Amino acid sequence: MTTFLGTPTFHPGTGNIRGAERFPEAARKSLTDTQLRANLGRATSTIRNKRTAAIAEVDDWEELRRAGSALKADVMARLPDLLMQFEENVVARGGTVHWARDSAEANRIITDLVRSTGSDEVVKVKSMATQETGLDEHLEESGIAAIETDLAELIVQLAGDTPSHILVPAIHRNRAEIREIFLESMPGIDADISDDPRALTMAARAYLRRKFLSARVAISGANFGVAETGTLAVVESEGNGRMCLTLPDTLITLMGIEKLVPTFTDLEVFMQLLPRSSTAERMNPYTSMWTGVHPGDGPQNFHVVLLDNGRTNVLADEVGRSALHCIRCSACLNVCPVYERAGGHAYGSVYPGPIGAILSPQLTGTTGHDDPNASLPFASTLCGACFDACPVRIDIPGILVHLRAKQIDSERHGLRGGQDLAMKAAGWVMESERRFAAAETASKVGRVLGGRKGRIISLPYPGSAWTSSRDFPSPPKETFRKWWERTHGGER
After folding, report:
1. H helices then E strands: how many in the chain?
2. Torsion over CA of 271, 275, 276 and 280, rounded to 10 degrees?
3. Are strands 472-473 and 455-456 parallel, antiparallel or unpaired?
4. Which of 139, 313, 334, 458 could be a cystine partner for 144, CB 3.0 to 4.6 Å?
5. pTM for the full predicted model
6. How many CB atoms lie within 10 A of CB 218?
7. Which of 427, 473, 466, 470 is nearest to 449 (CA)?
8. 487: which residues sit within 8 A by CB, 6+ positions away?
């Protein structure tokens, strides 16, 4: 296969996909937020349980997963050809295709398109790609107001916050917090509004309806693009996306180059996998598809911006490229014990959780040990729950191990690292019964350090490399040798 897409092979991704601090430090702060942990635990357990019931209804779920995985692998193998086919079909149906190498180029293209309409306000349907590029912030700097229309995205925007979950960006907020956000930032809201979910939803509905009816430009993402027809598809639960996609005169879609499927029929597989994996629904309440421009019906100007932003780098890695198979369902987040406790902000990227831990460092590349994204592949217990939950069978644990090895190799510059030396020392001790017995005796010191809790939480270097991110169990009171001597009378 070829990975040449007309862009430099190692053009790193930019935008909101690299945080300001490493995961261990960021997670340590979020773990002290008991309200955050309570909100996350309640929300993820609810979604997790509903999803389990939803997929249990499908007898051929595993066959669907394998079909989705095979389709995505086929797309990656033929991506350059499929992208060209997609462009030809969009143009043939009255649309315009733009190519963006990175976030800056995508933001510039979209800003110029909005300016050409004379509009200073746009409505947006939820889009991970625009979050990735930081489009809202760029538009604001250019004097253009971007109004998020997905309810959770609107909450995040009004709060001046950042998303912490792919599917439920405001998962870290409870309804009392949302009421306060609305009262402070939503124009025209009733000052006596309660925190009842229906009351909050109706307030957002009234606010957004005014924006829908006045906006002349809409910006969307895309869940899928069909190479065979040039069709784009967005799936959502609220209907706000459909308002964006049909009412304004100009529609601009930003789509990552990996979102393609070869044929319209292929959507059948993903339309079964995605809703059950994301919202535990049998099908999406709203599925919108559009193909080009139709006189007198819908937007009369249609643009697609195809975003690379490091995806070519990911595609070039034979092990890591399956991270591009992701359909953004967030099932891996909802089963991850690390995400449930640390929350999405600790990952620093708009892509949190297990999928973010393998996607973000590949998109940006890493610059060394202190690079925040270099720590993400280590933000996992490798329990494998993410692989079991993934609807397209991305081997996230395998890619995590692959990226860890690459990172460690890059840091030791051909020299033996601490892990190598530790393993060599352990081997030397275990070669001798006398040395091993001495090591067991020395381990008694660990029980003193562990105290009553039985956990060692701080060790000097080099042990600090372990205890900086996890506890170390105290050695047992009785070693295996002593237990054997006591229970078997010294029999060998």
Report:
1. 23, 12
2. -160
3. antiparallel
4. 139
5. 0.85
6. 25
7. 473
8. none
CB distance 276 to 64 below 8 Å: no
Write out pLDDT tens, residues 257-272. 999 999 999 999 999 9
The CA distance from 374 to 355, in Å, is 14
Strand ranges, E, within 132-249: 145-148, 217-220, 224-226, 231-236
The tokens for 27 are 């997670």
Which of 298, 229, 219, 238 minimizes the C-alpha distance to 267? 229
Neighbours of 186 (CB within 10 A): 18
Query: Is there a contact between 18 and 372 (Cβ–Cβ < 8 Å)?
Result: yes
Q: From CA 427, how far away is CA 439, in angstroms rounded?
A: 12
Cα–Cα separations (whole angstroms), residue 19 to 332, 370, 465: 20, 11, 22
How does DSSP assign 258-304, residue by residue? GGEESSGGGHHHHHHHHHHHHT--SS-SEEEEE-S-BTTBS-SEEEE
pLDDT digits (tens, 9 = 90+) for 84-109: 999 999 999 999 999 999 999 999 99
CA distance 150 to 141: 22
Alpha-carbon distance values, 338 to 207, 317, 341, 382, 455 (Å): 36, 26, 5, 10, 19
Quote the CA–CA distance of 52 and 329 in Å, as a whole number.
14
Q: Tell me the per-residue pLDDT of 225-246, one tens digit each, with 9 for 90 and over.
A: 999 999 999 999 888 889 999 9
Q: What pLDDT sits at residue 276?
A: 96
Contacts of 201 (CB under 8 A, 6+ apart): 151
pLDDT at 326 over 70: yes
How many CA atoms lie within 13 Å of 241's alpha carbon, on the beta-carbon side? 25
- How far apart CA 475 and CA 279 sit, in angstroms, is 44
- Crossing angle of helices 79-92 and 61-77, in 10° steps, is 90
Cα separation values, 284 from 139, 254, 287, Å? 30, 21, 6
Helix (H, G, I), strand (E, B) or coil at 251: strand
Q: What are the CA-CA distances from residue 394 to residues 177, 358, 391 (Å)?
A: 35, 10, 8
Q: How many other CB atoms sit within 10 Å of the CB of residue 434?
A: 8
Token pair of 48 as six digits: 């997790």
| Exposure of 347 in the CB half-sphere (CA atoms within 13 A) | 32
Pair 217, 300: CB distance under 8 Å: no
Whether the predicted pLDDT of 150 surpasses 70? yes
